[in-house]
Design goal:
Blueprint (H helix, E strand, L loop, with lengths): L4 H5 L6 E4 L2 H15 L6 E5 L4 H9 L3 E5 L9 H7 L4 E7 L8 H11 L2 E6 L6 E2 L2 E2 L6 E5 H5 L5 E5 L12 E2 L2 H20 L28 E2 L2 H8 L3 H18 L6 E3 L12 E6 L4 H10 L18 H9 E5 L6 H18 L1
Parallel strand pairs: 2-3, 2-4, 4-5, 5-8, 10-11
Antiparallel strand pairs: 1-9, 6-7, 8-9, 12-13, 13-14
Helix pairs in contact: 2-3
């Protein structure tokens, strides 16, 4: 028997709470912090390269985001981050992009010195370590996505590493179990379909992930929900060791087979030891990303593109460059080797067409 969810969450020093998704958890803890550490105009220091949903969540929690630039291989400048912190700053937010660990220790030192809370966004990873430390244990709190990493219809969780916080979830309702059952059956059927067709997509089931949006003229609102009972039970029986092994093996397979292409390069030249990746992120040549994404969709491969809606301010030109060029090849535990082979074949064909 491998590692199961109940065993995994015991690695964290504080309490763990389940939510409808990771953004519900984030809103809940941000509201709690704002109420317990009053500021006239609270702000949070966060990366400009985020989904619109996170932006909406921060505003709904009553904060003003102060963005720092993310560029290149999802890098950032510590001096820039430090310069954004002022007397109204409550928290510093860091993302472990695509499951690849950020430089969390430097950010921990910065947050401690500045007297602000450190929040880790671990939505793209689970059961992952960096330099011998569990991701999600360095920050004062961390959010995770069960939906993304365990392929459930919904679900996320909040980790509190501060044992003295008198925090309690403010659930407004619970996600419907009927919704979760339908979602699980749909995912299981799609997985079986791609296995039986040996990775082909004759009835065109593959879809591109929807792009987020934000309208700052509207009032932002997030309902804080508890996870459904079905998903709560479903996650208990997942073997996390198998999930980790499958994602790592798929990542390594693509890493070995995408070498030498002139039109793309992996965001990292290797896979950091101990990490559990969400996807296989690559940086593409200018003007290539969307054409390649469409080509992959035509053979049944749905690829993410990070967050094309970012950046939200025109001055972040390096973030805009990253946003235009990043492509996520799928390596989740639901994808089969037939599909991975078709990804590699498609890349070779696409490269020949560019010559």
């Amino acid at each position: 028997m491998g590692l199961h969810f109940e065993e995994y969450v015991k690695r964290f020093p504080g309490k763990v709470y389940l939510y409808g998704n990771a953004t519900h958890a984030l809103k809940d803890v941000l509201v709690w912090l704002r109420e317990h550490v009053p500021k006239k105009q609270p702000n949070i220091i966060m990366p400009e390269y985020i989904p619109a949903k996170l932006y909406r969540t921060v505003i709904a929690a009553g904060y003003t985001p102060r963005f720092y630039e993310v560029y290149g291989n999802c890098e950032y400048d510590l001096e820039e981050i430090g310069s954004l912190i002022d007397e109204q700053s409550l928290a510093l937010f860091v993302v472990h992009y695509f499951g690849l660990p950020s430089n969390i220790d430097d950010l921990r030192r910065l947050a401690t010195a500045a007297g602000v809370y450190l929040i880790e966004d671990c939505a793209h990873t689970i059961s992952s370590q960096s330099h011998g430390r569990e991701l999600g244990t360095v920050g004062d709190c961390a959010i995770f996505s069960v939906r993304k990493m365990l392929l459930s219809p919904e679900g996320g969780f909040l980790v509190l590493n501060k044992q003295d916080w008198d925090f309690a979830p403010s659930y407004e309702k619970r996600v419907s179990s009927a919704f979760s059952i339908c979602g699980l059956l749909k995912m299981r059927g799609k997985r079986t379909y791609f296995f039986l067709t040996r990775g082909r997509d004759p009835v065109l089931l593959a879809r591109l992930p929807r792009t987020g949006y934000i309208d700052l003229s509207e009032k932002q609102h997030i309902n804080v929900k508890n996870v459904s009972r079905v998903t709560e039970e479903y996650t208990r029986h997942i073997d996390l060791d198998k999930v980790v092994a499958k994602r790592r093996n798929n990542y390594k397979y693509l890493l070995e087979n995408v070498k030498g292409f002139q039109f793309l390069r992996p965001l990292r030249p290797d896979m950091p030891e101990g990490c559990t990746p969400y996807s296989f992120p690559v940086s593409t040549s200018n003007g290539v990303r969307d054409r390649l994404r469409t080509k992959l969709l035509q053979i049944g491969i749905s690829c993410g593109a990070g967050w094309p809606e970012s950046p939200f301010e025109a001055r972040f030109t390096r973030t805009a460059e990253l946003s235009k060029q990043l492509l996520e090849l799928p390596i989740h535990q639901g994808i089969n080797r037939f599909q991975l082979d078709r990804v590699v074949e498609c890349l070779h064909e696409f490269g020949k067409d560019l010559e």
